[in-house]
Amino acid sequence: MNWRKKFREWHRRIAGIMILPLIITAITGISYRLLKDWFGWSRDQAHFLMVIHEGEYLGDQLKGIYVLLNGLGVLFLLTTGATMLFSSLAKSGLFSSAKQEESQ
Question: What is the four-CA torsion angle of 40, 22, 69, 13, rounded to 10 degrees?
């Protein structure tokens, strides 16, 4: 199995695990900001969203692990996704056509 297939397989596996935490993080973060800025909620009124967003409901020991794994998951998905994208672009010849035009 070549590295492209391995990246795709790992990307697929990690994405399946990370989808729920990332959706929760995105929805609570966006909701918190919009409720405060657009709807005039106070920090105390919207605090329950930050509890969910930051994983505080997991307790002091697991809160840091949740944030760490969420961040590492995002970085991993970005890295593997970008690698697959650039590999696909290079394979399709998008970059090679620019080189051919420059040499003429």
Answer: 180
What is the rounded distance in angstroms from the CA atom of residue 10 to the CA atom of residue 73?
A: 11
Q: What is the pTM of this model?
A: 0.74
Structure tokens at 46: 């919207």
Helix (H) or strand (E) holding 42: none
Distance CA 28, CA 26 (A): 6
Distance, in Å, from the CA atom of 56 to the CA atom of 59, rounded to the nearest integer, reads 6
Instruction: Give the domain range for residue 30.
Output: 3-103
CA dist list (Å): 78 to 2, 4, 6, 50, 82: 20, 15, 15, 24, 6
Domain count, the chain: 1
When pLDDT is averaged across residues 43-72 and rounded to a whole number, the result is 94
